[in-house]
Amino acid sequence: MTQLTTLGKPAAPAARRAAGRPRRTLVLNLVAVVLGLLVWTLLATIGVQGLPTPMEVAAKAGELVADGTLLQDALASLRRVLLGFLMGTLLAIPVGFLMGWYATARGLLEPYVQFFRTIPPLAIIPLAIVLLGIGEVPKVFVIFLAAFLSSVVSTFQGVVDVDKTLINAARVLGASDRTIFLKVVVPASTPFILVGMRVGLGSAWGTLVAAELIAAQEGLGYRMQQAQLYYDLSTIFVGLIAIGVLGLLMDRLLLLAERRLTDWQERR
Amino acid sequence: MNAKISFRDIVKTYPMKDGVFTALDHVSLDIADREFVTVVGPSGCGKSTLMSMAAGLTEPTSGEVLVDGAPVPGPGPDRGVIFQQYALFPWLSVRKNVEFGLKLMNLPPDERRRRAEHAIELVGLSDFADALPKTLSGGMKQRCAIARAYAVNPQVLLMDEPFGALDALTRVQLQDQLLDTWSRERRTVMFITHDVDEAVYLARRVIVMAARPGRVQQIVDVDLPYPRTEEMRLSPEFARIRNEVWHGVYHQPKAA
Fold first, then answer.
1. Is pLDDT of A116 > 50?
2. Is residue B102 part of a domain?
3. B45 occurs within a structural domain
4. What ipTM was assigned to the predicted interfaces of this complex?
5. A vs B: CB pairs below 8 A
6. Are B229 and B123 in the same domain?
7. Could you report the per-residue pLDDT of A61-81, keeping only the tens digit for each?
8. Using a CB-CB distance cutoff of 8 angstroms, which residues of chain A are in contact with residue B58?
């Protein structure tokens, strides 16, 4: 709970800094990337066993792009993640609101939410396979669970933390409970919901590879798993980089949406 | 004198680890229609709780609060409340904030617009009607909150240390502005403050409260005519009244 509460604070300083990132920082970022690639090349050439050079990885990436494997895998993975993530957050938002707004709902749901939060979603995989088979369903289910559990707490916290003075201000102007909920609680907790969604996306993405260990036929995790069997490190690197880039892109998109939707916040 | 707001033998207690805490101990008070009353007292004297009961946000443990002779049914737009923390909806512009209460009254859009404009103009925020609260200074935020309360045209204004967080200059300006609007459109005002100068400058009567348990200690009449002016602040009469209130607040006898 405490951990998620800190995560749930909207407008993390790091995210804020990224907005007006000065040119100097950008140059430094670039330098760091180039240096990293150099070190990697160096390590590969002086013969760390099996380690491919960046060029080899790039060549492999080109190959995988050309024959369509990478795109196909990426799309398969994205589909699973987005499906699980959307279902997870779409359920988390109403459940979080229920828990925040009605003490009864909180009392009934909190033990489950808190308990399942302590179980890593990956630990559910054996159970999911037994109960749901080895098709798409258990994979999406595990991702769904990961996304749901991380964003439900944030939404709930957002509703609980709505400034009571704002609620009173609406009440004295004659607002009904319904109006207060729709016009005050929902907008006031939007920043928390969006942070919850970002956390949810992070854990959904993080659960992906393991979920694809469940007898997948395609997907980035599956491809890396296959590559491991053939000692094909280049493909593993391509997979890793693809996962990183896609994860970063999705996070940035959500961050952009967050900025748009919560521009009214006072950022101190 | 016809009481607009009437507190009848109000008791408010809170359960504590060791027994009960008495926030208000048999408080009775009448506020006349269109009267400007300030309530001053040390922290913990229950002045905000008393106001909150008139707003319908807090219920007394025993006793009753009457508005126009009828028990307060809960919060309602006939009693506007202004909070110390401004309580503006940060996602709404000044205009939308002011229109919030008007929307709840189901007014036609052009009527809503007109009344919002009027209220915004009254507090001098016309140039900032489309600004978000985060871009406003503290004084402007509170003026927006006042406009929001005025817009629904309440008969009673309940103000809970509204200028408490502002700098001295802004505070004096807003006091004058408040009196100015009050003299043009008289309403019943119950104004909570811990600032003795402010209490005397604004009110026709100053209610001095004492703490532990919260109770009315003394009621001081301010026989200075409206409109109040800067010269009055320096007059011997003002000083005399202020001393009386000051004495009432800071040299309170211990409760029996």
1. yes
2. yes
3. yes
4. 0.89
5. 66
6. no
7. 999 999 999 999 999 999 999
8. none
